[in-house]
Amino acid sequence: MLPVTSMIPVEEARERILAYFGRLEPERKPLLDALGQVLAEDVVAPFDIPPLDNTAMDGYAVRAADTAGASEAAPVQLRVIADLAAGYVLETPVGPGEAVRIMTGAPVPPGADAIVPFEETDEALRGINEAARKAGSVRVLKAANPGANIRRRGEDVQAGSTVIPAGRVLRPSEIGVLASIGLTHVTVIRRPVVAILSTGDEITPPGEPLLPGRIYDANAYSVAALVRKYGGIPRILGIARDTVEDLTAKIREGLDADMLVTSAGVSRGDFDVVKDVLAREGNIDFWTVRMRPGKPLAFGAFTAPGGRKVPHLGLPGNPVSSMVSFELFGRPAIFTMLGRSDWERPTVRAISRDYVRNPDGRRFYARCIVTRGDDGRWYADLTGPQGSGMLTSMSAANALAVIPEDVPAANPGDEIECIMLDWEHAP
Ligand SMILES: Nc1nc2c(c(=O)[nH]1)N[C@H]1C(S)=C(S)[C@@H](COP(=O)(O)OP(=O)(O)OC[C@H]3O[C@@H](n4cnc5c(N)ncnc54)[C@H](O)[C@@H]3O)O[C@H]1N2
Ligand code: MOO
């Protein structure tokens, strides 16, 4: 086995990888299609929001001074001069002793400086009905303060101010804000296209019969799903056989992508065609990273026709290693291309309920389920055997517990750091 000192730490591998990536160029997109992408330029409000003072309540627009001293015992009667729905503007001013019946969102008519909600008038007693409307007057049962229940022009957004700065990820709330200033399209950093290639004579595409000794291609799909989840556009290239010709042709097919991801063939097997072809076709290094799973890793770049460099991430073949390596190295690369720097996942410190052995001085990313106990503390349970070929152990997990390089084991009761992969969905 390699001495641990000749392995590179995870952080160094990630740093070297990220040096190859930068933010991609902007594109213009319909608003809704830009969900999850990063805004490429500041968006400035062309007008105030709300554009006019308007009412926050259904009720009556009044002159606050008219309602001074009003109470249930001594109501103040006002003459109702109009009925105003949202979407309409009333030019007629509200004079002394007058009121306008008004619905939430309608602009406050001139002269009025407070809104009395229905509940504070006798309309509530009579019921909201035609009779109240026809009565031509309303009794106010409580004094209103000037400004009461009025949403001021520009209180949310002021004309000329930056509503959303460049660099912000567009979530549903940002999409709503952009729509509220009338935008239909927005300029965002485009999503990276990630070409994904599986290698190995034993690999069979799902849908085809499985011959003896063969296995189905899990990696292309798990990695493609991660690419999509993290904001990229996956392009599955298929399976390259272990021949120089096939591998070379398939790699070339992927060179119009922003990044090429391969799986398998990066360790020390007899059939080192993958390594040979990667090394010949591109400028690729083979690393051993001080982590488990995912020790062997290839990284470098191919040169596309025209001279463009296409970074290449060569994942180990074992399905869990492939996913964990993509999580640690592929996710930050995709985020960087998207213009995001927040690729670091949240962690929680949880109490291990298992004995977790870490025998060989690598950093162990153990698949576990993190849950909150009745005592309010977080607990981590391993998802079972941790072999790097056992993809169901990954499927059962919502976190990776990190056992550091220099810690030979975690005992039940020890606090361990857990990288949360999934908050929304605990299996
Ligand atoms: N003598 C040594 N052998 C191995 C070492 C080592 O250091 N010395 N490292 C082991 C570790 S750790 C890993 S991880 C694997 C990495 O192997 P490769 O990247 O070279 O990949 P393969 O050997 O071709 O495949 C490994 C394993 O994964 C299966 N596989 C491959 N592709 C897929 C796919 N698309 N979908 C599902 N499963 C896949 C493949 O059939 C093998 O079972 O090497 C260890 N060996
Ligand atoms: O390091 Mo390998 O990735 O354990 O299976």
From TrEMBL:
InterPro entries: MoaB/Mog-like_dom_sf, MoaB/Mog_dom, MoCF_biosynth_CS, MoeA-like, MoeA_C_domain_IV, MoeA_C_domain_IV_sf, MoeA_linker/N, MoeA_linker/N_sf
Pfam families given in the database record: MoCF_biosynth (PF00994), MoeA_C (PF03454), MoeA_N (PF03453)
MF GO annotations: metal ion binding; molybdopterin molybdotransferase activity
Protein name: Molybdopterin molybdenumtransferase
Record key words, sorted: Magnesium, Metal-binding, Molybdenum, Molybdenum cofactor biosynthesis, Transferase
Catalytic activities: adenylyl-molybdopterin + molybdate = Mo-molybdopterin + AMP + H(+)
Organism placement in taxonomy: Bacteria, Bacillati, Chloroflexota, Tepidiformia, Tepidiformales
Coiled coil: none
Organism: Tepidiforma thermophila (strain KCTC 52669 / CGMCC 1.13589 / G233)
